[in-house]
Amino acid sequence: MQLLVIQRVVGRLLTVFSLAMVPPMVVSLIYSDGALAPFIEAFLVTAITGLILWLPVRSHRREMRLRDGFVIVVLFWTVLGSFGALPFLLADSHSLGFFDALFESISGLTTTGATVIEGIDRLPPSIQFYRQQLQWMGGMGIIVLAVAIMPMLGIGGMQLYRAETPGPIKDSKLTPRITESAKALWYIYLALTVACMLAYWAAGMDLFDAIAHSFSTVAIGGFSTHDESMGYFFGKPMVEVVAIIFMLLSGVNFALHFVAWRSRSIAGYLQDPEFRAYVFILLLVTVLTTSYLALTHSFPHVGHAVLHGVFQAVSIGTTTGFTTQDYSLWPGFLPVLLLFTSFIGGCAGSTGGGMKVIRFLLLLKQGLREVMRVIHPNAVIPIKIGRKPVSNKVVDAVWGFFAAYVGLFIFFMLLLMADGLDQVTAFSAVAASINNLGPGLGEVSTSYASISDFSKAVLALAMLMGRLEIFTLLVLLTPAFWRK
After folding, report:
1. What is the pLDDT of residue 114?
2. Which residue of 50, 65, 155, 166 pairs with 15 in a disulfide if CB–CB is 3.0 to 4.6 A?
3. How confident is the model at residue 77 (pLDDT cuts 50, 70, 90)?
């Protein structure tokens, strides 16, 4: 373990992160909302801390190892979440304690979208903007952004990229150089954000809301500048249509967007097994949701049932977490169906949460293979994604991930129940946190403000586990990782 290398990288990256306080300062000055001071103070504290870490070791240049990459990823997300909480903690517009501010910050950075703030409409515009910006920064992973600027920082980035990039196959690159890959991802991410903002603006949002909601839509985040979330724009159906389109696009593997842009063809999407499974799952859930809403006459018009059903199926299925209504009050099995859909989540390499479609697909194929082995014990039955066989090493890794996912889920749920939460609330809160979804059921259907500080700390850890895909954080807890 190269502690000086880790200190140098974290210090420099923390210094860069202090610049995240500048855009909210500009918003505060434009709107004269009286919330400038917290951002100035947070900027100074973050920048000075970063410089204190970086300056003593600025000339210590060594090649970063994979273990260093894992430590930096975990440290950066935890340290970043802590410093990102400063504006919430220092602002006078709302009284948030330490755990509330930390929960809000980590929820934003992990693109979970769970909130403890009630009265979001009354927040200063700069605070509203900052919440959305946190999600946008966390959407593609701040470490991937750091990889894009690694030449400027003077350090290599492959180890960080391998530790941060989601999905079961982590060594694939879009371009020969990892820095160029990261830049390509961010160009696509930025282009989608701008397109989403313009579409929202054209659909009837004002410019501030269009920018803010484009941040959280493309990031699959779910934060809104209004307590009613997307329900605030009721009567503007095109807003929901725009949200559906860009949630779907953001839940797709960004490598497919890159290939489509480079080849000027959509053939890559149609040929990708994960993309086809992604579309099929969301289509199936959408049909079930809209049909059940129509059959139970939950809305006065069938058109409303279709629009709300499609929106919520896509929003929850991609783990965005926008709501047009409190879906926990919907009839029958729908709330649980939507919540379970979030366990699958988006595609690998997307901004979505959950276990990822490719893992679900591999688990399903492995299950079917075991059934066939019962019938034909001596048969050699390979698992294929598309026409390519998948190695047993990858399948074993997926099963290991699934086992860890279920084990941690049960552990977190028992902790919440021990803290006094009922079964529905505890189950849905952990599901919404570890899947980076946001809204749950029961007591946490609209806000997490009423639960205890202990439960908030547990759920913040669950959010980090979900965002770092379990193993990145778990590996640091193993004795083997720390042996020389």
Report:
1. 94
2. 50
3. confident
